[in-house]
Structures are given as structure tokens and as C-alpha cells.
Design brief:
By secondary structure, the chain is of the alpha/beta class. Helix content is about 50%, strand content about 20%. It is built from eleven helices and ten strands. The protein has helices at about 35-60, 80-90, 100-110, 150-170, 180-190, 195-200, 210-220, 225-250, 260-265, 270-280, 295-305, and strands spanning about 5-10, 15-20, 25-30, 65-70, 95-100, 115-120, 125-130, 135-140, 255-260, 285-290. The strands form two sheets. A five-stranded mixed sheet has the order 3-2-1-4-5, with helices on both faces. Strand 6 and strand 7 (about 125-130) form a beta hairpin. The chain is globular. It starts with a strand and ends with a helix. The relative contact order is 0.15.
């Protein structure tokens, strides 16, 4: 029996699956392993922990893995591919393919067929493939200049909105509008708007993606700013999907879409705005309502030995 390993190395979470030709035998999870965000040392620790957990759950050792596939953000960069590949080779002495996180997500959603996947986790990107095998992507250029609609974007936009409301004197106009400022300050351990400004502009940069749960809580309680931020995230993500559809599908009615990542999984508002925005321009496009797990695509690619 042959054993295979798939990894989704996200910015906030690393997920690993071990399976044979047909079944999932073990699962592991650890902290983020996005090399750009956490650096090589922490990425190595997270990947090692996830692999060890999955192999232990499957009752095998890493040396028994026949093939592995890992999907990580930034894999278009040869340096990132090389570093991640070297780390994985130290952990799993097997033939390993390092691909982009969007590649394994597309595989999980559509197999080798056509479609468009939009990922919204710590970062964001849209990626697609048409029936001719042509591919295209939009977004995913990093949190400083891109990653629209992502957890990082939501946290940063929420913090910015809180300060704008404070400038305009809107913060205390409605009791519900105090929920988001209070949540953000609690998450970062600050007590005033002045301290919030210092925290938001600190070096090294604060974890804006860590504010996403506070935005969700405030939106669920009726905070208008939080709801607006999530709705804007849905619109931004739909914009990425539309770019890829225009690039790849002359007949947009044939486009199939799917969603991945914690932002989609946790926010029904983001999902609904995303669907409505795409559907308003491409009414015949179809959307899988289930938020898919990219790590399943990594495991399937390892099974098939497919090079992206």
C-alpha cells in the first residue's frame, strides 16, 4: 500500500492530510506556514508539527510517504518554492511538489476540470482554468498592496473605519456603533483611540487578520460599520472572480465558481454579497455553495503525481 501526503500551508493555519489511494488516514493542524508572513523558522515548525500529527494519526512514519504535495501562498516565487521544498524534503523523504495555494484549491473544487476558485483567508486570490487548460489569476499580491477581501484586509479596513468614525464624531451616535471599536481595542489590548493608532502603525506590523473575529462578532450584533466592512469584502472578492471569468470564459454561462478560506466559511454576509455581485453580471455562472478545503486538492495531486 502506498501513502500520500497533502499540505495546505496558510497564513494562519497549516493543514495536513495523509491518505492511501482511496481514503484519508490521518489529519494534522498547526499554526500558519506562509513563508512571507511568518519566516522560515516558524514555517518549518508549523510544517513539521502538522506532518508529525497526520502521520501519527495514520499510524505511519514520514519515511513511508511515497509522494507529497504542498500548496503555499507565493509559490510563483522560485525562492519560496525552493525553501518550502527543501524543508519538506527534510521532513518527508519523498518526491514532493510545491504549488500555489490556489492550485490545490482549484483541484479540490473541480479536479482537473475548468472553474474559478476564490480564496479568502488571511490573504486572498482568484484563480481559474478553462476547458482549453488556460489559467489566469487576480489579486494575491500580498497584504501591503493587495489581498482584497481577505482577513487581513477586513481587519485593516475595520480599524481604519473606526478611526474615521471617531474623526467624524459618529462613534457614539448609536450604541451599536461602539461594538466594533470596543472589540478591536480588546483584541489589541489598548484602551483609547490614540493607543489604537500607535498599535496599528507599529513595527513590526500588527496582526490585522486577527481582528476578523471581532468584526464578525460586531456584525452579528448589528454594528453598522462591521456589516459594511464585510459587505465590501464580498464585493472585492466578487471583483477578483469577475476578472478571472473575463480572462478565461468567452461564454460566462459556462463558468463554475467555488469558495475557499475562513472568511467565506465564517461569514454568511460575505458569501451572500459575493454571490449577488457575481450573479448580477454573470447570471448563468454557477456557484458551489459549499466552502471547499484546499488540502483535499493537495492530497489528490499527491496521489496522481500531477505537476501543476
Amino acid at each position: 500500500m502506498a501513502f500520500f501526503l497533502g499540505i495546505d500551508g496558510g497564513g494562519s493555519k497549516t493543514t495536513c492530510l495523509v491518505g492511501d489511494e482511496n481514503s484519508i488516514l490521518g489529519r494534522g493542524a498547526s499554526a500558519g506556514s506562509n513563508l512571507i508572513r511568518v519566516g522560515e523558522a516558524r514555517a518549518r515548525e508549523s510544517l513539521s508539527s502538522a506532518v508529525e500529527q497526520a502521520c501519527a494519526a495514520a499510524g505511519i512514519t514520514p519515511a513511508e510517504i511515497a509522494r507529497a504535495c504542498v500548496g503555499v501562498a507565493g509559490a510563483r516565487n522560485p525562492h519560496i518554492r525552493d525553501v518550502v521544498g527543501r524543508v519538506l524534503l527534510e521532513l518527508v523523504p519523498a518526491r514532493t511538489e510545491v504549488v500555489g495555494d490556489a492550485v490545490i484549491a482549484l483541484e479540490a473544487a473541480f479536479g482537473p476540470g475548468p472553474g474559478v476558485i476564490v480564496i479568502a483567508g488571511t490573504g486572498s486570490v482568484a484563480y481559474g482554468r478553462n476547458v482549453a487548460g488556460q489559467t489566469a489569476h487576480a489579486g494575491g499580491w500580498g497584504f501591503a498592496i493587495s489581498d482584497e477581501g481577505s482577513g487581513h484586509w477586513i481587519g485593516r479596513t475595520a480599524a481604519s473605519g473606526v478611526l474615521r468614525a471617531y474623526d467624524e464624531g459618529r462613534a457614539d451616535a448609536d450604541a451599536r456603533n461602539t461594538l466594533l471599536p470596543a472589540g478591536i481595542m480588546r483584541a489589541w489590548g489598548v484602551g483609547t483611540h490614540e493607543q489604537l493608532v500607535l498599535a496599528a502603525n507599529a513595527t513590526p506590523a500588527r496582526d490585522f487578520a486577527g481582528l476578523f473575529p471581532e468584526v464578525l462578532r460586531a456584525a452579528d450584533a448589528g454594528d453598522a460599520l462591521a456589516c459594511d466592512v464585510l459587505a465590501r469584502a464580498g464585493t472585492e472578492l466578487a471583483g477578483l472572480a469577475k476578472i478571472v471569468i473575463r480572462k478565461l470564459f468567452a461564454n460566462a454561462g459556462t463558468a463554475r465558481l467555488a469558495m475557499a478560506g475562513g472568511v467565506f466559511a465564517c461569514s454568511s454576509l460575505v458569501r451572500q454579497v459575493f454571490y449577488n455581485s457575481v450573479h448580477s453580471e454573470y447570471p448563468s455562472a454557477t456557484l458551489n455553495p459549499t466552502v471547499i478545503e484546499p488540502v483535499n486538492g493537495a492530497l489528490e495531486m499527491a496521489r496522481r503525481g500531477v505537476r501543476a
